[in-house]
Design goal:
The chain is α/β, with parallel strands linked by helices and 390 residues long. It has two domains: 131 residues, HUPs (Rossmann fold, 3-Layer(aba) Sandwich), CATH 3.40.50.620; 202 residues, GHMP kinase, C-terminal domain (Alpha-Beta Plaits). 36% of the residues lie in helices and 18% in strands. The strands form three sheets. It has a five-stranded parallel β-sheet, with helices on both faces. Strands 6-7-8-9 form a four-stranded antiparallel β-sheet. Strands 10-12-11 form a three-stranded antiparallel β-sheet.
Length: 390
């Protein structure tokens, strides 16, 4: 890909891309700030691309979104992206030839940054800052009449499958994540299970025994005759608030769950966990090809998970990072397809900033999750769902 020629002696061209569904004050504040750098070109994802990425339909069609954005005084031009996937704007980028590419923290990805570096385009990441005294807004928050959470598996993922825990028993550590960000579909955040939860409960998890509610969700997602049974850590990780350790012994359901709701521990995790978007797994991705599942490998995963749990309870950031990384390494040793060269190249860009790292869920894309003792620039942070929604 050749570097794009810079624009001539006129205002710089500024490029912004995104969904911009349910246009709100947060979008406008972002675009106004981006427009301070020059003439603003806004390129929006098509309805089909958003459906493929987010697993949902837009509220406003692509033509409606284009019409509203073009009506903003700060916008010079709005186009509908002709590509697909997370880099759906490549044709528009080549045609507009911008000087500056602007994203917010949620929209930052290493792939976008690398493309801009290759093309000689300045890349800027803006903070989410509401205008004046207006409240902070996001499309996710406006949609969030629905408060069904996502989940992150901090360590031990795969031990919730009997074809792994039959070799050696062990735990999976999960945290339930408030939907402050609309995480991409097929990105290891239990979005498929979350969609089943929305079908079942519509807007929020009902009050009741979390084990029984999780069993209901698990059964709803895996009806009789299901060939590939989803791991129960997804249902448990969504339903159980706070921090949880689920112990598996050659069964689809854990023999017991240990739950932590201590505010100091939950806040400590939030302060030290950072996410970078890699993009959804491709549809043809199969993590269960070329596996090497052994007793030694399952034990290494179980041991790293136990070390991770103890480090969190002791709030030992160095031990947490080390065990977090070792859990991921144990996963990849048994499931090599979880990470390819492109993913390892991105890890190499960030690992000097982190104590440990892993990929969300089954890997193959999704999110790079890091444990760090200092803020990681341009990375996202999460909020853990508290007991009783507090």
């Amino acid at each position: 890909m050749k570097a794009l020629p810079m624009s001539d002696n006129h205002a710089k061209k500024v490029f912004v891309t995104g969904c911009f569904d349910m246009l709100h004050s947060g979008h406008v504040a972002f675009m106004k700030e981006a427009a301070e750098y020059g003439d603003l070109y806004v390129c929006i994802g098509s309805d089909s691309t958003i459906h493929n990425l987010k697993g949902r339909y837009t509220v406003n069609s692509q033509e409606e979104r284009k019409y509203m954005i073009e009506s903003l005084r700060c916008v010079k031009e709005c186009r509908i992206n002709t590509g697909s996937g997370i880099i759906d704007f490549e044709n528009e980028l080549q045609d507009i030839k911008p000087d500056i590419f602007v994203v917010n923290e949620d929209g930052h990805t290493p792939a976008k940054e690398a493309m801009c570096a290759e093309l000689g385009i300045e890349y800027k990441v803006l903070k989410r800052i509401p205008y004046a005294d207006l409240p902070a807004r996001s499309t996710t928050a406006l949609r969030n009449v629905c408060r069904i959470p996502y989940r992150i598996d901090l360590a031990g993922g795969w031990l919730d499958q009997p074809f792994v825990s039959k070799y050696y028993p062990g735990s999976v550590i999960t945290i339930s994540i408030e939907p402050t960000v609309e995480f991409n579909h097929r990105s290891g955040m239990a979005s498929s299970t979350r969609r089943k939860a929305i079908e079942l409960w519509r807007t929020e998890i009902p009050h009741g025994d979390p084990d029984q509610l999780a069993r209901l969700l698990f059964s709803f997602e895996n009806p009789p005759g299901t060939k590939e049974i989803a791991g129960s850590q997804d249902s448990l990780g969504i339903v159980y608030p706070g921090l949880n350790k689920h112990y598996y012994e050659n069964n689809y359901w854990p023999s017991h769950t240990q739950s932590i709701q201590d505010e100091d521990i939950l806040s400590w995790i939030e302060d030290h966990l950072y996410l970078v978007t890699l993009g959804p797994r491709v549809s043809e991705y199969s993590v269960i090809d070329n596996t090497n599942i052994t007793t030694e490998g399952a034990k290494a995963l179980a041991d790293a998970t136990e070390a991770c749990w103890n480090a969190i309870l002791n709030r030992d950031i160095s031990a947490f990072g080390k065990a977090f990384r070792e859990s991921f390494e144990a996963q990849v040793a048994m499931f090599p397809n979880m990470a390819d060269k492109e993913i390892y190249d991105i890890i190499d860009q960030y690992k000097h900033l982190a104590k440990g790292w892993k990929l969300s869920g089954a890997g193959g894309g999704g999110y790079l999750i890091m444990v760090a003792d200092k803020p990681v620039e341009d990375a996202m942070q999460i909020r853990i769902r508290r007991q009783n929604g507090l």
